[in-house]
């Protein structure tokens, strides 16, 4: 096999990848770094392992854009399951409660979503990468510990039902950075009295970047370095705003 060219011949900038379910954002970063022998690869905001969609990778000098990219608003589509409460607030967690949901109407759900639109203080879930005293919360959660978490201020621009097939409902949400969509699902379910959890999540926009311009992760791994460079949005295109 022909040896890959050096890092210095890789274009600095942004690579848009469509992340599959079942891997972490760090897994994607590591695979791209290893395949193309790159020294600097980062990302502009993580997705949970089972979430899919737009992952903004930052290559070379592009890593300087991290704060700028992470600070952008995000758009997601997904599926919420009524009547189920889990330890992680999504389908990956241990089921804690299973409650009747048949009495819940679409109008009640839409009202619950409207109540979670606008300025909010949100408590991060225990199963998250938020650090307290230098320790990620998910590590404490694995030990069965639950501690007080500092609330974070977020803004939800839009949270609406796009398809109604109870106990499953599809939705779209547009939020500021740092919003836990699974917590929105959990809090809505709690307000309805039946509980709810996140069944699926897909990011479609991150700031000005769109999923339609991203390439599947497996396709990215099949590229040569020259082909990769053709897909990288140049750093200079964004540096003036960094």
Kindly describe this structure.
The chain has helices at 25-36, 66-70, 106-115, 137-142, 181-192, 217-221, 225-231, 236-239; strands at 13-19, 41-43, 52-59, 74-82, 84-86, 95-98, 118-122, 131-132, 135-136, 152-165, 168-175, 196-206, 209-210, 215-216, 233-234. With 242 residues, the protein is α+β, with helices and mostly antiparallel strands. The protein has 2 domains: 7-71 and 209-239, Pseudouridine synthase (2-Layer Sandwich); 74-205, Pseudouridine synthase (2-Layer Sandwich), CATH 3.30.2350. Strands 1, 2, 3, 4, 7, 10, 11, 12, 13, 14 and 15 form an 11-stranded mixed beta sheet that branches. It has a two-stranded antiparallel sheet with strand order 5-6. It has a two-stranded antiparallel ribbon with strand order 8-9. A hairpin with an 8-residue loop joins β5 (84-86) and β6 (95-98). α3 crosses α5. The chain is elongated.
Short description:
The chain is an alpha+beta fold. The chain has helices spanning 25-36, 66-70, 106-115, 137-142, 181-192, 217-221, 225-231, 236-239, and strands at 13-19, 41-43, 52-59, 74-82, 84-86, 95-98, 118-122, 131-132, 135-136, 152-165, 168-175, 196-206, 209-210, 215-216, 233-234. It has two domains: 7-71 and 209-239, 2-Layer Sandwich (Pseudouridine synthase); 74-205, 2-Layer Sandwich (Pseudouridine synthase).
